[in-house]
Amino acid sequence: METGRFLWAVFLGCLVVEVALVYLDLTVNWLRWSDSGAIRRLFNTTREDGLASWFMVSQTLVTALVVWVIFTVLLHQRTAARRRIGWLIVALFFTYMCIDDGAMVHERIGTAFENSTGIGGYPSYAWQYVLLPFFALMGVFMLLFLWREMPRAADRARVAAGVGLFVLAVAMDFVEGKDEGYRWLSAAAGWESETIRHFSKSLEEFFEMVGMSIFLVTFIGYLAVAAPRLEVRFDGRDQV
């Protein structure tokens, strides 16, 4: 299978799973197609112990591994130190993202910081006060670095789209964390605040999953160009 078709197959496969997870959250969880609370929690996209969270962590892990392979290839090709360092930073960041998604790192750091300092005046979740500058810096870095590294306009557009979806997800998270952040929408649409908050969170998670899918196929495509024939050899004698 040629690279372009393979990348489309990977992306569409991820997208089908992501849409299915949102649909199952709507039907099995929200519309209570199941009478079991445990089953509803399994399909609840807003929980950190559901199928959507597992899929996001798994997808982020695969993305991080692909970036580590890219870094290893460039290391063996003896490319410029600036490029190797840049890809190392990207690999470390996606590794952190995988750990963060799996262990709720930023939420717990934010809670610990808020409890220990008693900060006041910040209108939304405390983790944004602590870690948002770091995420913003990494977003700018990836845009600038990957823009120079990506060979085609389509690759650059995917990088911009991936970063943009995560920025949108963070903006939605900021509104969600505010007291009565969706009051205006509740008043305009006549929906309950609980309904709006749930589906806003569900949509936020969907944007993050799609953004990670875009990064995954972009990095796989880059690897196909950087190492069109990739071989892994294990030399040496068997040891007993």
Describe the structure.
It contains nine helices and no strands. With 240 residues, it is mainly α. It is globular, with a radius of gyration of 20 Å. It starts with a helix and ends in a 14-residue tail after the last helix.
Low-pLDDT runs = none
Radius of gyration: 20 Å
**SSE topology string:** HHHHHHHHH
Major sheet description: none
Q: How much of the sequence is in beta strands?
A: under 5%
In short:
The chain has 240 residues and is mainly α. The chain has helices at 3-30, 37-43, 51-76, 81-103, 105-117, 126-149, 153-177, 183-189, 193-226.
Characteristic terms for this protein:
single chain, 240 residues, mainly alpha
Architecture blueprint of SSEs:
Elements: H1 3-30, H2 37-43, H3 51-76, H4 81-103, H5 105-117, H6 126-149, H7 153-177, H8 183-189, H9 193-226
Helix pairs in contact: 1-2, 1-9, 3-4, 3-9, 4-6, 5-6, 6-7, 7-9
